[in-house]
Amino acid sequence: MTTLLGTKLNGRYRLEARIGAGGMSTVYRALDETLERRVAIKLMNTEVVSDSDQLERFRREARAVAQLSHPNVVGVIDAGEDEGRPYIVFECVEGETLKERIRRQGRLPIPEAVAYAIEIVRALGAAHARHIVHRDVKPQNVLIDEEGSANVTDFGIARTLEEDGLTADGRVLGTTDYVSPEQALGQPVTGQSDLYSLGVVLYEMLTGEVPFRGENQVAVAMKHVRDAMPDVQAKRPEVSAALAKVIDTATAKRVADRYADDAELIADLEDALAIETARAGNAPGEVTAVLRTLPVPKQRRIPYQLRHRVITTTLALIVIAGIVAAGIWLAARAHHGTGRASQSPPSQLAQVGLCQTCAHAYNPDGLGGDTSQNDNEAGLAIDNDPQTKWQTEQYYGGTLGKPGVGVYVDAHPRVVARELRLVTDTPAFTAQVWGRNTPPTPTQADFNQPGGWVQLASSPYVHHKQDIELPGAAPYRYYLVWIVSLPPGLQSVSLNEISLYK
Predict the structure, then answer these.
(1) pTM higher than 0.70 for the full model?
(2) What are the start-end ranges of the E strands in 318-436?
(3) Answer CATH for 2-91 from 3.30.200.20, 1.25.40.340, 3.40.640.10, 3.30.465.10
(4) Which among 425, 111, 397 has a CA at the least distance from the CA of 275?
(5) What is the pLDDT of residues 311-363, one digit of tens each?
(6) 420 beta partners
(7) Which are the catalytic amino acids?
């Protein structure tokens, strides 16, 4: 496999280092030479390409993960084939796996373990909402990034609940250290099977070891079927009764005795996080970030002094962001209406001037929902005032319920844009950037059609200020910011500023 290092897939992705391998595929760190960014590529091994079942399973992974959009899921950027070998391009998450962290550190601090469990279940919840079961939840498939967040990856044996035919009855897929009893017996699996595996992962984070050992994988799998789960408090007495109960419920042998869904487990984990943080008396790293996402009643269970530190940290970040925004606003006021702000452009590029009527909401007929999408406010997204914004309609179900909605700008006559900057006060949504030269029509969603929209880039997690690199290979007149998911817990998305740079 090392002979592939230095080669390029489809003339674009240069393989730099092998970072993982399995029976079906090998994972490489690579350079996307078109967008000049690091990516991770899963390349199917030559010896299994001729296996039609394995080939379909690999392609299914690309389809499955491409549907998912969540800040705790490692997103798919691209997929293709090179000389008959299919590959999937993922975000490159710098950091270590959760398994590596447990091996390096042993038992994790209790609040940290619970915080990671919450992030993992939230990611699984996004998959389960699309009827996708991961089927191989284990710490090796959780990446801890440099900011301390947990990111679920490797949906290589994921399948939708509607699929049949690729997994015969009696065949066990998954790692038996974490396998659910029903999966070990070759019975149908559901999202509750993933929650069982997550309960085992949480046990390992708290104790530093898996609950069952055996002479081989089959022996371990049968222990998951027959043996009672070890008492986590016997291994780590400082674990609260509330957290021990979470593990017991998640890993119940009978599916009917487990959590009914992700929301139930998340609610109990949030309670446990508040309890364990109060008992620990501190909230380091990722714990603080997750605490900020808890409902206010649960935050109130944390002692005032500790809660005050969490709130103070949050307020400090808001104040800093406000100071920066105010500086940008003051600078922009001197140029208001000119279509060019005096803020520092990314990578020393020059900002593209846009007229004040050059932004339009985009929600073609036939995609569902209100086609107006506040078009009269679209100009607020390019007025160089981050205090004003264009906002989508409200989606009370928590999902768009359609392929997307967005705003496009008219960079008349045409421009080779190399970067697009988004400023938003509703971060954590997923966005794509598209370009075209023919005028868009309100009745036709012509994505990837001749003369229609051409995808230029995507951002699976848009931050408060997000710079998105564009290929810069061709000039376009129209640039579309296409929103394909809502932020977790929110019902709309705001675009405070859209800026193009050349």
Answers:
(1) no
(2) 359-362, 390-391, 405-415, 419-423, 430-436
(3) 3.30.200.20
(4) 111
(5) 444 444 444 444 344 443 333 333 333 333 334 566 578 899 988 789 999 98
(6) 468, 500
(7) 136
